[in-house]
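Agenda item 2: iron/sulfur cluster complex prediction
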Amino acid sequence: MTNATAELNLETAPRPAAVHPVGHPIGILAELTHRCPLRCPYCSNPLELERREAELDTATWKRVLSEAAALGVLHVHLSGGEPTARADLVELTAHCAAEGLYTNLITSGVGRAGAMLPALSEAGLDHVQLSFQGAKAETTDRVGGYAGGHAAKLAFAAQVTDLGLPLTVNAVFHRANIHEVEDMIELAIALKARRLEVAHTQYYGWAYANRAALMPARPDVDRSVAIVEEARKRLEGVLVIDMVIPDYYARYPKPCSGGWGRRTLNVTPTGRVLPCHAAESIPGLEFWSVRDHALGDIWRASPAFNAYRGTAWMREPCRSCDRREMDFGGCRCQAMALAGDASLTDPACSKSPFHARVEALATAEAAGIAPDFIYRTIGGMPAGRREGAKP
Ligand code: SF4
Ligand code: FES
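Presented output:
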């Protein structure tokens, strides 16, 4: 996708200048690499994954992390792909610690993650978020496309807690594993996790292309929500359970990224800075790179960050809605994907004219026979599967 050449609809084009006070970001998602041993079909990374040769070098990442600290950022999510695929991860983690940044490693726990963990802990790593693709070995290994992945994750989780690091388990749910929510809660307790994220799939990147293979049925979603609500009460003081709502069956949308250009920024492996992980799916936005600009300049002045900052860009029904400062109109990327215009209300909202159609689409996809997964791979989707999911 070439954002720079896409034609803008002047009537609906986002306003070019900031019309809201620009505060300080509190978090940065450092997508250090797109390389990953796993091949999850629910991955939110773009279909065109970036290659190792194009990644930022160590010195540039250190400069970006120092600029983030100066900008007021508190948390760094060391992410990817699989961040431990970067040989300089220990050095980058130590740099964050020296800058006073809280570091969260977002990892699959396979590959070289276990071998690197003691050094990361020594370097000052603060927290580990470990993904599971299922509560059972056969599910994790099938969804992740990696034989032996589940066993490696169990061993890695034990290493994390043995080192005294706080552990969060993250599990993305969809029709291939939604019957394992109860088991996942039990697994998180057994692994001594402090927190579990029950994340219903968000349909961006590879997940959007795999939507029909992933979409759960409404009754299964409702059951999973009830299980989490019951467990939250029962496990108070033992395990915190967060839940990411299933957008297509939601009543109101999530405040995506805490509001566009409001709290967080994402840096891609090659250095483009995005307001959210899927922002490049919106045509017409101009993203600046850390190779050419200081992070603070990008945050304050880059066209992409100012496009949907605040509420002045909103159209009805968001413009006059009393939730507009709570959810900021939901997700711009989802509005683009499902309604064809990023400045419209997120169709996850029941006030969107597209909402009923989206829910009907989800219901129909969930009722159909699940197609095979298209596994994430560098080099894009295989020939013959390029059309992906259609809105
Ligand atoms: Fe949020 Fe807009 Fe829906 Fe109101 S109309 S709940 S602001 S998405
Ligand atoms: Fe881009 Fe939600 S993923 S605004």
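Discussion summary: The mean pLDDT is 91.
Owner for follow-up: CH.
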